[in-house]
Specification:
The complex is a heterodimer of chains A (about 450) and B (about 350). In chain A, helix 11 runs antiparallel to helix 12. Helices cover about 35% and strands about 20% of the residues of chain A. Chain A is globular. In chain A, the strands form 4 sheets. In chain A, strands 15-12-14-13-17-18-16-19 form an 8-stranded antiparallel beta sheet, sandwiched between helices. A 5-stranded antiparallel beta sheet of chain A has the order 5-6-10-8-9. In chain A, strands 1-2-4-3 form a 4-stranded mixed beta sheet. Chain A folds into 4 domains: about 90 residues, Uridine Diphospho-n-acetylenolpyruvylglucosamine Reductase, domain 2 (2-Layer Sandwich); about 120 residues, Uridine Diphospho-n-acetylenolpyruvylglucosamine Reductase, domain 3 (2-Layer Sandwich); about 100 residues, Alpha-Beta Plaits (2-Layer Sandwich); about 100 residues, FAD-linked oxidases, C-terminal domain (Vanillyl-alcohol Oxidase, Chain A, domain 3, 3-Layer(aba) Sandwich), CATH 3.40.462. The model of chain A has no long low-confidence stretch (mean pLDDT about 95). Helix content of chain B is about 45%, strand content about 10%. In chain B, helix 11 links the parallel strand 5 and strand 6. Chain B is of the alpha/beta class and about 350 residues long. The chains are: A alpha+beta (about 450), B alpha/beta (about 350). Chains A and B meet through helix 8 and strand 15 of A and helix 7, helix 12 and helix 14 of B.
């Protein structure tokens, strides 16, 4: 059978883009986090929607698991093929098909990366930008959007998933459908006013179909961008700082970070506040509004703005942030993972305090938190980071235990683990409203009656 | 030799109160200044302690050999006055907390770059050929804590810093940052600390180096941004003019230069005095523009980092003094586009 499936896949995409070689399958058996190894049977790299369609039809007919993959950077094992089968690596589908300057959206294929879209817009549409996450530039836009990712514009415009105007999806039976305005119009400009079927493919972690194209919203790119960092030593103050800063409606992005190294940062919380403007006057006006909003905290001597050297500023203004990669290698050995959880802003203090304890308890060696404000303080994506040495099984196991405990903490805080791995999914489903859980199961069954799409994920027992 | 202890009785019989009447931030007339001094003498509340922006200037304004700035800072600490928000003070304390760096044997000429990571590129010049360089927390002079009303921390750390520098085994040390030079020539004495090496100011070192090299007159009009710590050692300020004369630049005689210099404003922002920082920076830079400055020259890296972008936006090129000297010997400092 293996040989037959392999030949069928070769028939669809050509020999060059199919592999059943153990060394290549090995690469796809991991992601950069602690998940794996679970080896797929095949890896295939389609170029077109039609090829995806044929692959899925084949898998559907044969009852073979299919795991869609962008850059495979979720760190929670979402593209590790838990039940084997075919990994569909979408990175050859890398065309930017259209940018509508006036309606501010781009139609892109599923393999377009953030680095690619950023560079393209800078060159061809300098007045537009998209919400760039602090992931490696090789992360795909579609991947980030479909897992409810966040980026540099999340404070203003919400989750990246909120920025989806429409999708082209290959359903588990191989049919192709378009969702959003593109279902009835040549313009991929809106999800409204139709019944919102896009939600059937967002947050489902590839268990309901394979997205092959999407329309993503773009936003004005101002000429100047600057950053101020507000420092506190009491985590209880952070929700208030966020509330005040977001109230001004003057800022683009707000991130909170904390780490003990270098020592200058130890024991303090840093709120990075990003400002943009088309002139010095606009920037200065916004900066003053932010200072005024925090003035009485400064006057009470409970918080203040730190001095930034040019090097510090350059690091903070870089997109994506290189510091993320530096933290990732702090233990050497190339292992890094984190639990990102969507939590209410006012749970920040507890998330911070208990996160430090988890790091200590599992011998992680250092704590490192980053929280991104989403939608004017409607939510925080709080990320507890755990670097580990991949060559040291004990280090990997300690990180795994810390991650699992952090998933539990996120739920205890009233939050929800973001892009959860299997363990996190189980915890979520245990707490889920029973009718919602049943609905989830029924919708999944309706779309994927044979259960071939990324099996092992969102599996209701 | 200077008497480095402050004597309040001298202030009570002072007839000018220069320390307060010349202060560019407190703006006190003679009568108000006298009243404030009397309050201070009685140990009562005084707005001087609350409103002092810690610019160091009163140390230079006092012509009676007293040390008002040290007194103010000591009193601020004694009375628990916070000159800046607590997390900012903590951050600065942690910034230079020694991490067990070990001194090594060094050779002359030895240059201390204090603790300015990111500034190493300024040493890529013939001016510093053959110079042994040290940098790190263990040689950080700690004087900055005067801004944060923490003289006790300086007193705690400085003896170890002096010892660490001395362990390099060199009897004279060139200090890139004015603040270090002023610490080892002035503040150390004020706290009764013996310094077993001779501090050399960067400007003196540069002047002597320039004399050994071929120098081309630059013909530039230059504004000089005095750093706060230079108020502690005004006797060495002549090196600025000596260098300028040697390399053929004109120091624009503007309002906010020499004893009337304005702070770069960075410390004001740390203290939470945003409006004051913006106003002082605006006046300072307007003054440079008005007097036709083409270049703004700095000693202090913090002043440089704070004002660089702002002066550049007004068409004035920011340079550290050593970079200006590089131009005079035909080198192009990093980022120079002239």
């Amino acid at each position: 059978m293996k040989d037959r499936i392999y030949k069928a896949l070769v028939e669809i995409v050509g020999e060059e883009y199919v592999s059943a070689n153990p060394e290549e399958l090995y690469i796809y058996s991991y992601d950069p986090g602690v998940a794996g190894p679970r080896r797929p049977d095949y890896v295939v790299l389609p170029k077109t929607t039609e090829e995806v369609q044929r692959i899925v039809k084949l898998a559907y007919e044969e009852g073979i698991p299919v795991v869609p993959m962008g850059a495979g950077l979720t760190l929670t094992g979402l593209t590790v093929p838990l039940k084997g089968g075919i990994v569909v690596d979408l990175r050859r589908m890398d065309q930017i098909l259209e940018v509508n300057e006036r309606a501010r959206y781009a139609i892109i294929e599923a393999g377009v990366t953030h680095g690619q879209l950023k560079a393209y817009l800078e060159r061809h549409h300098p007045r537009l930008k998209h919400s760039l996450p602090d992931a490696p530039p090789s992360a795909t836009v579609a991947g980030n959007a479909l897992i409810h990712g966040q980026g540099r514009l999340s404070q203003q415009y919400g989750f990246t998933s909120d920025m989806i105007n429409g999708l082209e999806v290959v359903l588990p039976n191989g049919e192709v459908c378009r969702l959003g305005s593109c279902a009835v119009s040549p313009y991929w400009f809106s999800r409204a006013p139709l019944p919102d079927l896009v939600g059937l493919f967002v947050g489902w972690l590839g268990t309901t179909g394979i997205v092959t194209k999407l329309s993503i919203k773009l936003y004005p790119r101002k000429k100047f961008r600057d950053v101020e960092v507000f420092v506190t030593e009491d985590p209880e103050l952070v929700p208030e700082v966020v509330y005040r800063v977001t109230y001004t409606e003057m800022v683009e992005d707000v991130d909170i970070w904390a780490q003990p190294y270098p020592p200058i940062y130890a024991g303090l919380q840093h709120t990075s506040i990003y400002l943009t403007g088309d002139s010095d006057e606009e920037l200065e006006f916004k900066r003053r509004m932010v200072w005024d909003a925090l003035k009485d905290i400064i006057d009470r001597r409970e918080g203040g703005f730190m001095m930034l050297t040019p090097d510090m500023k350059a690091t903070l203004l870089a997109t994506p942030q290189p510091s993320v990669a530096r933290i990732a290698d702090v233990k050497k050995g190339g292992g890094f993972s984190y639990v990102g959880a969507i939590i209410p802003v006012d749970r920040f203090p507890e998330a911070y305090r208990r996160g430090i304890k988890i790091s200590e308890r599992h011998g992680i060696g250092t704590y490192s938190f980053m929280a991104r404000v989403v939608g004017r303080g409607h939510a925080l994506m709080f990320a507890w980071s755990y670097p580990f040495n991949r060559a040291d099984p004990d280090s990997v196991e300690r990180a795994r235990r810390a991650l699992d405990e952090t998933d539990e903490l996120a739920l205890e805080l009233g939050g929800i683990p973001w892009k959860p791995g299997v363990y996190g999914q189980r915890l979520i489903m245990e707490r889920m409203d029973s009718t919602a859980l049943r609905l989830l199961r029924e919708v999944k069954r309706l779309l994927d009656p044979k259960g071939i799409m990324n099996p092992g994920n969102w599996e209701v027992s | 030799m200077l008497e480095l202890k402050h004597d309040l009785s001298k202030c009570l019989i002072c007839d000018t109160y220069d320390c307060l009447t010349r202060c560019q931030y407190l703006k006190l007339d003679v009568e108000s200044a006298r009243a404030e001094i009397e309050r201070l003498a009685k140990g009562s509340w005084s707005r001087v302690l609350e409103d002092c922006v810690t610019c160091y200037a009163c140390e230079e304004y006092c012509k009676k050999g007293n040390h008002p700035f040290y007194f103010i800072v000591e009193e601020q600490e004694r009375r628990g006055i916070l000159t800046a928000p607590k997390p900012i003070v903590r951050q600065w304390i942690q910034l230079a907390e020694p991490l067990g760096e070990k001194p090594r044997k060094a050779r002359k000429p030895l240059l201390s770059m204090c603790f300015f990571p990111g500034l190493e590129h300024v040493l890529e010049s013939r001016l510093f050929e053959g110079v042994d360089v040290i940098m790190g927390r263990h040689v950080f002079c700690n004087l900055v804590y005067l801004h944060f009303a923490k003289p006790s921390l300086i007193k705690e750390r400085l003896p170890k810093v002096v010892e660490a520098i001395a362990q390099h085994g060199v009897d004279e040390v060139v200090f890139y940052h004015d603040e270090c030079y002023s610490t080892f020539t002035h503040y150390a004495k004020a706290i009764g600390l013996e310094v077993p090496f001779k501090p050399i100011h960067l400007f003196e070192f540069l002047y002597r180096r320039l004399r050994e090299l071929e120098v081309k007159p630059l013909g530039l009009k230059v504004a000089y941004q005095r750093p706060c710590s230079s108020r502690l050692t005004p006797e060495k300020e002549h090196w600025v003019d000596d260098i300028f004369n040697l390399i053929g630049v004109e120091r624009v005689e503007r309002e906010y230069d020499r004893e009337n210099a304005l702070c770069c404003g960075s410390i004001f922002k740390l203290q939470g005095r945003y409006d004051l920082a913006v106003d002082v920076q605006r006046r300072n830079i307007e003054d440079m523009v008005k007097h036709g400055a083409e270049v703004c020259v700095f000693n202090c890296p913090n002043c440089y980092w704070t004002l660089s972008e702002l002066v550049a936006k007004r068409g004035i090129k920011p340079l550290l003094m050593s970079q200006l000297c590089q131009l005079a010997i035909g080198e192009r400092p990093k980022g120079w586009t002239g």
